[in-house]
Amino acid sequence: MHWFLIALTFVPHAASLSAPNNYEYRLSQENAKESLMHDIFGSLMHDSNIIAERNGAHRNEQLLEQQEASPISFPFKMNQLHYPDIDDLTDFKQRGPLFSGIVTFAHLPQDECFFAREPIDIAIVGAPFDLGVSYNSGARFGPNGARQGSRRLGGGNSPIRGNYRASKLRRLDPYNAGLKLVDCGDVPMTPFDSRIALNQLYRGHHAIHKHSSFNSTQFNNTRIVTLGGDHTITLMNLRSAYETFGDPGGLAVIHFDAHIDTWDPKVLGGGISDYASLNHGTFLHFAAEAGYVAKNHSVHVGIRAPFISGIDEKHDAVDCGFKTLTSKDVDVYTAKGIAEIIKSIVGHRKAYLTFDLDTFDVGYINSGTLEAGGLSSREILTILDGLEGINLVGCDIVEVSTAPNTVNSASTELLAAQVVDSMLGLMTVFDQPE
Ligand SMILES: *[C@@H]1O[C@H](CO)[C@@H](O)[C@H](O)[C@H]1NC(C)=O
Ligand SMILES: *[C@@H]1O[C@H](CO)[C@@H](O)[C@H](O)[C@H]1NC(C)=O
Ligand SMILES: *[C@@H]1O[C@H](CO)[C@@H](O)[C@H](O)[C@H]1NC(C)=O
Ligand SMILES: [Mn+2]
């Protein structure tokens, strides 16, 4: 810094004297060693010794003595750069800049989760699937979209993690909290038959859940955060999580979404075939029917899309067992208040959090079925952190539609990643030793 200031003082002076002449003078020099380029870049473009010798110099030291102290090159001469030997690549062993390299979620190590059996505490896995959407496709690109959006994540304490200063979450860096987090890559899901694709996802989850935990205080098995994929995938995530961790009464499902997703399969699937009846708007009906959903202890958050038929609300609340918090309830109860209500519904039960990106307002994101009147990104981060202390056995982010050339791709990716980051905070804070 000291030399830099000196350079600033000298440069205008030199320029006012005779900048063009100075430039010509330097070009006419016989020795490349004495050029301004060399003073700044050193041997980046020419090896100074070879050039100096070619130009008749006997010794390098002689040349250094001959050099006048140009006002422009002065600071660079005082800070001559020494490049490593051409075969020395030790600096390549360090991680490159955040925007570089093969991308895993938050730069986590990539693990061979489906075949190897190493202990893992929390596994990220992608479900690149969008055969179940009723409107806009593109969520098959969501897993890698979320990874791209996560490139600035991966460690360090955040001044906004946790909603109050004394919270454990505030002092927690989930990536360095003693738990082993890995990115398993994606489950290979066929894009040609949703039945086979969903079964592949189920087997993938089962294989990951079978890993033992590494350093968990609470769990014997690996917990999973799934990057979707349209919302249909949650049925398989829930099934495997329920089979691994579930209590007989089911998992408390915390469902962030603009839509209830318990719609009558005969209506939303059009009643065409059994195949058509399972989709991203009916999977929660099937999850409730299968017993994965803890009735009266599960909740929708952010609801605002119109109901399709007159029986939807009753079917949702009575048959499927969901409470509902609408997007406008955030205005009434505040974001922190919403989190308290969710916690009172869930209690100490094992919970599964599924987050449809369309919970965010339409202005932020691209997703399967965009709806107006959604939540801001700050409201969502506050609600999520307000869930500190709940027992999350699994999470997913879905409807992350980052198809090529779609609008809002960058913020869609970033917000998906940020929601997963909050999930990792909740999952690790619950799992810290006292
Ligand atoms: C396990 O977690 C504890 C508590 O967070 C931590 O101190 C310890 O270093 C972790 N062990 C390993 C092997 O990472
Ligand atoms: C983990 O396994 C141990 C030993 O089998 C068992 O005592 C404990 O209850 C298990 N913990 C959970 C959370 O399942
Ligand atoms: C859910 O709550 C309703 C109304 O409070 C009650 O009638 C019903 O029995 C409860 N269902 C379960 C499974 O607890
Ligand atoms: Mn949904």
Automatic annotation (TrEMBL):
GO terms for biological process: putrescine biosynthetic process from arginine, via agmatine. This is Agmatinase. It comes from Ogataea haglerorum. The keyword Transmembrane does not apply. InterPro entries: Ureohydrolase (IPR006035), Ureohydrolase_dom_sf (IPR023696). Residues 1-16 form the signal peptide. Keywords: Signal. Transmembrane segments: none annotated. One of its GO terms (molecular function) is metal ion binding. Belongs to the arginase family. SUPFAM superfamilies: Arginase/deacetylase. Gene3D superfamilies: Ureohydrolase domain (3.40.800.10).
